[in-house]
Amino acid sequence: MVQFFDNISDDHAEWIRKQKIFFVGTAPLDGRGTVNNSPKGYDCLRVLNPNQVCYLEMSGMLFYFPSLRDSSGIETQSHLEENGRITIMLTAFEGGPRIMRLMGTGRVIRVDTPEFNTLMETHYEGSELARAAGKRAIILIDVRKVSTSCGYGVPYFDYKGSRKTLIDTWAKRDEDKVKEYWKTINKSSLDGLPGMRHELLGPDFVGRNRGAGEEIVLPGEEPWGALLTGWVKASPAPVNAAYVVAGAVIGGAISHLYSRRR
Q: Do you know which Gene3D superfamilies this protein is assigned to (predicted)?
């Protein structure tokens, strides 16, 4: 039986902390775009309050697959920056059956920013990922709805432990190797949305992630000033100059006619 809640209860939070894996679902606005579903392990998910959770995001390991060097691994960040929609799903593989979904909006908190460092100190001190190399961001999610369902169709599995390959591999690579990975693998999503943004990567990768309390502005809903700025940047210089001259001439003619009527 499906039940819906407006927040995460104490019972929900206790159950969430016991789970060893969860799944992150996001998608672009384009109906032809790629829906993404990422499994997450390690001790990285935190319940911050009844309507907010976060998880620590690690860099991947696509450099082991040369044919995928222009691939993504940055889908969640790209989708969140575009539209903010996100669902986290957890399911019980042992004990009583349960599936839980945390539905809401998320934003990206970049590594080595003040907000990132505060969350690390407050919620990840002493965890296995606290000192790990390859940390990329914290995904902060405002949960607007929680659903639970039976999960009788989910099989039992025994937990044997975390895989150490990811942490061990990044421990052998310096900061320059991490940056190279972000620039070559995480530069854009599979559908061409902007990927990793960080001033550490140089001018081509500078970008500002959405801040706390900042409204999500969907494509097509930008204020006129932002639309005009984007149009000017996208148009060739001669075209822009021609439109500016034409606007000045038309404006001058209207002003002249108005002054003569007075």
A: Electron Transport, Fmn-binding Protein, Chain A (2.30.110.10)
Beta-strand (E) ranges in 134-173? 135-149
Least confident of 80-89, 153-162, 165-174, 216-225: 216-225
Provide the pLDDT for residue 143: 98
Evaluate if residue 67 carries a pLDDT over 70. no
| Beta-carbon contacts of residue 170 (< 8 Å; ≥ 6 apart) | 58, 59, 132, 133, 134, 178
The secondary structure of residue 185, as a DSSP letter, is T
Looking at residue 234, what is its pLDDT?
47
Rg of the Cα trace of the chain?
Answer: 23
Can you give the pLDDT at residue 243? 57
Helix (H) or strand (E) holding 108: strand 99-110
Contact 54/44 with Cβ under 8 angstroms? no
Residue 58's beta-bridge partner residues?
A: 135
Q: Is 114 exposed, middle or buried (0-12, 13-18, 19+ CB in 10 A)?
A: exposed
From the list 212, 148, 124, the residue with the least C-alpha distance to 8 is 148
Given a cut of 60, whether residue 155 has pLDDT beyond it is yes
β-pairing, 85-91 vs 22-26, is antiparallel
Query: Which strand (E) or helix (H) includes residue 39?
Result: strand 36-40
Contacts of 200 (CB under 8 A, 6+ apart): 112, 179
- Burial (0-12, 13-18, 19+ Cβ within 10 Å), 24: buried
- Nearest Cα neighbor of 108 from 62, 145, 59, 55 is 55
Do the beta carbons of residue 20 and residue 41 sit within 8 Å? yes
The predicted-structure confidence for 199-227, as pLDDT tens digits, reads as follows: 778 887 877 777 877 887 776 676 655 55
